[in-house]
Automatic annotation (TrEMBL):
This is Nitroreductase family protein. It comes from Herbiconiux daphne. The keyword Repeat does not apply. Keywords: Oxidoreductase. Residues 34-86, 95-175 form the Nitroreductase domain. The keyword Ubl conjugation does not apply.
Length: 209
């Protein structure tokens, strides 16, 4: 089956950012999905919208999981708290430069074993689904989310006394979008404004009969 370009026909982006980051898709998709992106520039003065944050976490709670095992756990750390400082201290590289401007840092943690002590085979996959639901709901409600893998896993586990059945997998910065000019580094500012790209859909389909 041949994939042909077909510009999306939905209305204006749901995101209220300062510039249009809407994806150019090969078929129309929901505006919340097309307009969701991962910024690095957050308003360091804006408090978190608690209603929107709760909705995002609730969306994560209701994401699907294998046999309804629900292995996703979260550390929610608001800017200005000791928990936020603990999470921020584990961030690596450029992440430590920009992510501390976010209103909240959420650590996605996976429970690797069930109540019966048996390994949860699909736990990380299920956490990924939970984080996806969280990010889409947050974007719908006017927040932005940027997930990171660049952090010290062992340091997070130690800082929050996690036992060996709980593994930190990702850290998500959540907050209100700011101008790229607010970023302190030119490389980051360039990345913030660069075109969004994805591989063509046809390259992702191993079979499409």
């Amino acid at each position: 089956m041949t994939i042909t370009a077909d510009p999306r026909t939905f209305d204006a982006p749901v995101s209220r950012g300062s510039f249009d980051r809407s994806a150019e898709t090969s078929a129309p998709i929901h505006p919340v999905l097309a307009d969701r992106w991962s910024p690095r520039s957050f308003d360091a003065a804006a408090p978190i919208d608690e209603t929107a944050l709760t909705a995002a976490l609730e969306a994560a709670r209701w994401s699907p999981s294998a046999a309804n095992s629900q292995p996703a756990r979260f550390i929610v750390a608001r800017r200005g708290t000791e928990a936020f400082d603990k999470v921020a201290a584990t961030l690596m590289g450029f992440n430590s430069v920009w992510a501390t401007s976010a209103a909240v840092l959420v650590v996605g943690v996976v429970a690797t074993t069930g109540a019966d002590g048996k390994p949860l085979r699909w736990a990380e996959y299920d956490l990924g689904q939970a984080m996806a639901h969280l990010s889409v709901q947050a974007h719908h409600d006017g927040l932005h989310v940027h997930q990171m893998g660049g952090f010290d896993v062992a340091a997070i586990a130690q800082a929050f006394d996690l036992d060996d059945t709980l593994t930190p997998v990702t850290v998500a910065a959540i907050g209100t979008l700011a101008s790229p000019d607010a970023l302190p580094d030119e490389i980051l500012r360039t990345r913030e404004s660069a075109p969004r790209t994805r591989l063509p859909l046809a390259e992702l389909l191993l079979a499409n009969e």
